[in-house]
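Sample 1 of the test manifest.
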Amino acid sequence: MSGAADREAVFPTRQSLGIMKAKLKGAETGHSLLKRKSEALTKRFREITRRIDEAKRKMGRVMQIASLSLAEVTYAVGGNIGYQIQESAKSARFRIRAKQENVSGVLLPAFESYLTEGNNDFAMTGLGKGGQQVQRCRETYARAVEALVELASLQTAFVILDEVIKVVNRRVNAIEHVIIPRTENTIKYINSELDEIDREEFYRLKKVANKKKLDNAAAEADRQHRSEELAAMEEENGAPERASGPTDLLAAEEDEDVIF
Amino acid sequence: MASQTDFRDRQFLAVIGDEDSVTGLLLAGIGHVTPPPDNQKNFLVVDNKTDTAAIEAAFERYTTERKDIGIVLINQHIADKIRHRVDTYTQAFPTVLEIPSKDHPYDPEKDSVLRRVRRLFGE
């Protein structure tokens, strides 16, 4: 293992090894959870994109029908009613409200359309002629707008999901490619350092034992030597008494008193 | 990210479009004019004489300034004129929706969202 490898700045101790192991476990759990979240969101995302595709096509058709009915109105009324309508628009009858939907912890807004009661800005439109066409046109356009609102909520969900999926994937990748390798490296580093320390300790103990052995041997040799010398000296001095004397310890009558 | 309170009071739609589209959508009842002091309309009629700056200003007003608009509808051929603005608009609220107009058939290839869909699926 190279010392330059990406790892965290920790002291190689057993405690930090424990911390790192816990961290690795946490990172792996988090990784699998986030991965699952990302998959759930992607599934939803694909469904939404498919529905957007469909809804966009549907919108094309619906708008075509709606313009046709507007053309009918123009024909029936016998003139352009655009100006009149633009002037008489005051308060929105067709409104939207946002509600939320929870997909794996992501709040997706969805628009819901509703009609407010009682205000009709176009009561006078088509009063002279073409009232029926105007009414039909309004209904057609109301349906078209409903389709548009549905499409808009899909699109909002699309934009939000897109963003969230990016964030989640970034996290998954960060854990997978940065945090987990780094923690593993740290664990490897701590293990190798600990092994190194163990080896050093073992070597040191061996050295100490060796030294002790040598010292003991030297001390033993010294003692041996000294006792031999002593024996030799004694032999020179009082060999005659000693020769008969100490054979029977019990027989030695006169010991000197031991005074401590 | 849209916050909780951000879209609670967004209850109107806004339209930037040619006369027919605007007329039709107003007939459906989406037109709204704010009370007298400022008298802001939530629709803009674009014809040949409307210049791009005005369209951009309206787009800006509906998407950024006004906080009561949830969906901005814009005719595709008008969106084309301010394409760079529409393409760089990535917020979730309000939603910008490109709609077909009578004279200009709908082209899915130009739609900013559909293009993103295509790009995401690698087409």
